Amino acid sequence: MISNFLAGHAEALPTPDLGKYSPTEGVRIMEFESDSGTVELWDASGDHKYENCWGAIMNEADGVLLIYNPDAAGQDQQLADWYEYFVRRNGLRDEQCLIFAHRQNVVNSGERFRPPPLFQRISAALTTTQSGKDMKNMFANLLTQAGGAGGRRK
Questions:
Q1: What is the pTM of this model?
Q2: Number of domains forming the structure of the chain
Q3: First-last CA distance in the chain
Q4: How many Å is the Cα radius of gyration of the chain?
Q5: Residue 25 CB burial class (10 angstroms; 0-12, 13-18, ≥19)
Q6: pLDDT band at 48; cut points 50, 70, 90
Q7: Is 107 a domain residue?
Q8: 140 near 34, Cβ under 8 Å?
Q9: 152 is a domain residue
């Protein structure tokens, strides 16, 4: 799982041959140390059946990492819904948000990624199980942005 990898609880991202994608059920909370200090990473399900819990999950959040599958139908709209709920409603700035358009399979090296139009000002990347180092670097930058957001709200 991506959250385990980013929190340092796994050496590498799981490869596609390790089985089918398994979404988070509800929420998992991981705590770890980073250059930005102690971090609580809340891995929350984007499934609308958990929407009643989202208010508590986003309470006092300093940053948001949104992960979606750019190849799945309806994911652009779901990403927009998550952004509205977790970033805008929480009063976070775009610098406190990071988007991973994640695919299980390797991406064509010449392929260019363009996030949906709503997200042009947000740091975003097309990621795969081969993108571990880049993902960790982008996540570390998000932690710096979120941690340095003294007046974290708009």
A1: 0.84
A2: 1
A3: 32
A4: 15
A5: exposed
A6: confident
A7: yes
A8: yes
A9: no
